[in-house]
Amino acid sequence: MPKMTAAPMERLNAALEGRYTIERELGQGGMATVYLARDLKHNRNVALKVLKPELAAVVGAERFLAEIETTANLQHPHILPLFDSGEADGFLFYVMPYVQGETLADKIAREKQLPVDEALGIATSVASALQHAHDRGIIHRDIKPGNILLQDGQPVVGDFGIALAVGGAGGARLTETGLSVGTPYYMSPEQATGDQVVGPASDTYALACVLYEMLTGEPPYPGNTAQAVLGKIIQGLPVSATAVRRSVPPNVDAAIRKALEKLPADRFTGAHSFAKALADQAFRHGDDAAPAPAATKRLRRAATAGWATAAAAVAALAMVSTREAPEPVRRVERFAVPFLEGQEPTDLSPGGFELSPDGSMLVYRRLVEGEPTLLVRRWDDLTATPVRETANSFDPEVSPDGLELVFEQEGQIRVLAFAGGPVRTLMEGTIPEWGEDGFVYATVDSGTARVPAQGGLVENLTRLAEGESIQIIYDVLPDGRTAFLMANIGGNRWEIRTLDLESLEMTPLVDGQGPVYTSSGHLLYSSDGGGALMAVRFDPSRREMMGTPTAVLDGVGYWSVADDGKLFHATGGAAGGQGPTLQLVWVGRTGQATPVDAAWTFSRGTDPNLRWDLSPDGTMAALRIFGSEGYDIWVKRLDAGPLSRLTFAEGMDKMPTWAPGTRDVVFLSDRNGNHDVWRRPADGTREPELVLDLEQDIATVDWSPDGEWIFVRTSAGTAVTAQRNILAYRPGTDEEPVPLFAGSYRELNPAVSPDGRWIAYASDETGRYEIYVRPFPDVGAGRWQVSINGGRNPQWAHSGRELFFQSPTLQMMGAEVSSGATFESAAPEVLFEASPQWEDGNLNGLYYDVHPDGQRFLLATSAIAGVGEDDGPAPPSVVLVSNFFEELRARVPD
């Protein structure tokens, strides 16, 4: 490594005395020598870069420092920030963070070819950084592997804007000296020919070169000399990464070839477009693209003979033709259940699905190997694809550029790129909303907050007012100054408000849910308490509705609308709060289903956490029903007996279970804030009694058969409780619950055997949920695994000689068990397969309860008529509407 002579080192240290101490040289680049230095003011290591003397002489200190100021305002997680710059004893220097990781050039030199997903992740992150700079008029001009540092696995672009500062300050004098800005292997043709007008397309060209090298092991145009490389860049034939490495996907190869086109106008319009093509499996370019229409082919032939004149003539002809041609008719079209069998969405509640902004794809939740997972269905592809690392995720939303996905997972707001790369965690919270202003908004315990989409400081925005249980920022308008916020102000009443994102002033608009501003100029929302989709013209500048809201569709469940006019919705009124209409059914050990009460149905609401519990004698069921006043606990006498309401307080009551040895129903209620444990006699003769009040939210509650112990599972809503711990508590004996299962894994569904000696539960300690049994209460005295290929939701037969659970594919399983001095279980057997019409109970799989006779199970189905009969197909549960805005304009005219 070249060493700095003693005199310059002494000069530099003397000139920077009190600010920086130079420790050693790290290396040299085309424009600067890099030193490891100590920032004395902030007590940190930094990379201090000294401009080469020949460049400094040409550029001049004043102009260089003036130009470099423009780069100091770049704030992006994949851009290495500029700390400082200046002149010291004739040296021009600038200071950046010292990154201890290696450069991408080092990684390529060591590994030769990177895994495709890893290479795409790096390219997508760099493209995001480039787009951030390009939007602010800054071009890098020297993108290369050596300028991409890998910090904790994340790519960070260094020297951002330094080449611009050098070029901008030096001007034509730089070219006259024979010095050039850029590295030959990654120079665009316009840079290679000395063009002084270099735009974003040059950076995208260089990034494509870097990606090509990550995939194939060498740049697209190698050569022994700079002249040979530049000659190939200017005149060389197109390259193909797939031809070198067959595992490179066709769309990735096509995107690289388009980015490497000779003319800037033939490349992508922006780095974000390049990254989007890398993630789009249908993208093609050039010879592998679909045949062009005749006018396009004529334009290509004209370009060969003299593109400027011919193109102008064709463009003029096209303008005349466009003016004379009638406006094309955009017909409204509806498609029912547009999914292959076995790929349909299984969560049609809010947070279960979302269209991308451009309408090209749907992200939705479905059980995959027993885990609720996000899938992507691109409308140009018949097959849906699971999204990596999204098990147990909610509320997906695609970024405005279509390249990334934000979602909630374990109480954290997380983001991943479709093309690959690591998942990044932005903040704690729920219900994310990705604004076009570059922020991700989320609901937090105190109200709402936001964070830059690339990561950074979390900013609290609004706070809950008295009587409000939750606030949700549902949409950010294109102006970036206004958002729609909905707040629960008691029971099932939701109020839609506008939020000024500068003053944070809120203004009530209308009662309803799910407000969205469409590109057609309408406010869409769901009626409060019903299944109607409402629409009204909206003026963003005045933040006012223009007219009276109109019901444009009835019987609409949760819905999502895209900028291209696509509408995707569930049927049955889920968005309005009613949710699917359900019916309880008895299912025998062979899978035959019969209605509990053919004349009775109930609404599950939009909350997916279902539960019903049979009384000890099997004559009654306690269940949570959604009604006009919200979520309450009801008691149904089986089979065709009366239905009576048990709870009446505002808020959400859920998870009912019978207290052993009594006629009391125990349930969770948030009437005092977070969800606590309450109880009340099933006949309603006493007022509800608080049983257990914890600071954190309680997600489930269960009893031991002797009535001595209750078991609660804490909520996964915050980082503290994200592991889903199970606590045990003896009312009247213990002051506080004690951890029963509170390790580093997630545990669910505690169930104590009828004799009180054993506890079954589900744990993901092996990477997926399996069923285990331990002694109780001494759970540390042993452990036996009952399931073989995964399982959830264990329940004991009343005889204690059989343990039931569900497989990852929702088969009902049964295992014979025996207990003496130790526990023993036979191999589980399949009792029956799940029906696609049976209702999913979120993390519990298909919720069920076991009748005391051990021969039948209580489940619910969304098929109202003909359970166990052949009454024809059930009505569609989801509908895709194309060109919905045409219907909207007809129903809600200007």
Strand content: 35-45%
Give the CA-based shape: elongated
Domain count: the total is 4
Spans where pLDDT lies below 50 across 5 or more residues: 1-6, 169-182, 290-327, 573-577, 716-723, 863-876
Distance between the termini: 72 Å
Secondary structure topology:
Layout: H1 6-15, E1 20-28, E2 32-39, E3 44-51, H2 53-59, H3 61-68, E4 84-88, E5 91-97, H4 104-111, H5 116-134, E6 148-151, E7 154-157, H6 162-170, H7 172-176, H8 189-192, H9 200-216, H10 226-235, H11 241-244, H12 250-259, H13 271-279, H14 294-324, E8 333-336, E9 353-355, E10 361-368, E11 371-378, E12 385-386, E13 393-398, E14 404-409, E15 412-417, E16 424-428, E17 430-434, E18 439-444, E19 447-452, E20 459-463, E21 470-476, E22 482-488, E23 494-500, E24 506-511, E25 513-517, E26 522-526, E27 533-539, E28 544-553, E29 556-561, E30 567-571, E31 581-588, E32 593-595, E33 602-603, E34 612-614, E35 620-627, E36 630-637, E37 643-645, E38 653-658, E39 664-669, E40 676-681, E41 689-692, E42 698-703, E43 710-714, E44 726-729, E45 738-741, E46 747-752, E47 758-763, E48 770-775, E49 784-785, E50 792-796, E51 802-806, E52 812-819, E53 823-825, E54 829-832, E55 849-850, E56 856-861, E57 878-882, H15 884-891
Antiparallel strand pairs: 1-2, 2-3, 3-5, 4-5, 6-7, 8-57, 9-10, 10-11, 11-12, 13-14, 14-15, 15-16, 17-18, 18-19, 19-20, 21-22, 22-23, 23-24, 25-26, 26-27, 27-28, 29-30, 30-57, 31-32, 31-33, 31-56, 34-35, 35-36, 36-37, 38-39, 39-40, 40-41, 42-43, 43-44, 44-45, 46-47, 47-48, 48-49, 50-51, 51-52, ...
Helix pairs in contact: 3-6, 5-9, 5-13, 9-12, 12-13
